[in-house]
Amino acid sequence: SRLVRKLADGNYLVDGTASLRSLKRQMGWTLPTAEAHTLSGLLIEVLEVIPVGQASVRIGNHAMTVVDIRDNTIRKVLIKPDRFPA
After folding, report:
1. What's the domain range around 23?
2. Residue 38: which of 53, 26, 55, 23 has the closest Cα?
3. Does 82 score more than 80 pLDDT?
4. Which DSSP letter does residue 12 get?
5. Are 45 and 74 in contact (CB under 8 A)?
6. How many domains does the chain have?
7. 13, 16, 19, 23: CA torsion to nearest 10
8. What is the domain-level CATH number for residue 66?
9. 61, 80 in Cβ contact below 8 A?
10. pLDDT of the residue at 86
């Protein structure tokens, strides 16, 4: 998917508009069922604010860092999947 780019270090750069349903299905990631439909929406729901700079949060087994915000929209998120989920 053009919304998900795997990086050389094994992490992923994901577009904020990526749908949670497709990320769960395509990547096999466990993400909470939320009111939000997109990755951006989920992060705003969890953070309870649109971040002004890089913000990191752990959701499920994944460390997520907002790396690009424009026009009050989360554009890009760096996701570090847990290599050894509990």
Report:
1. 4-81
2. 23
3. no
4. E
5. no
6. 1
7. 20
8. 3.30.465.10
9. no
10. 47
